[in-house]
Write a structure and sequence with these properties.
Elements (H helix, E strand, L loop, with lengths): L1 H24 L1 H30 L2
Length: 58
């Protein structure tokens, strides 16, 4: 059981290392992905605020 936890931890570290390397080599892709994500979140927040305003206009 101890060996399995150790293997899982090593696997997690290797995945994280590979992901960091990919992000370092693809900064433009990371930047665009983050931009899309936050624009989507901002749009969702704007729609939520509009719904709240419409709901309270009774």
């Amino acid at each position: 059981m101890e060996n399995l936890k150790e293997l899982e931890e090593i696997a997690r570290q290797l995945r994280n290392k590979k992901a960091r390397q990919w992000r370092a080599n693809n900064k433009d892709k990371v930047r665009e992905t983050n931009k899309r994500y936050w624009l989507k979140k901002a749009k969702e927040e704007l729609e939520r605020r509009k719904k709240c305003r419409e709901h309270t206009k009774i």
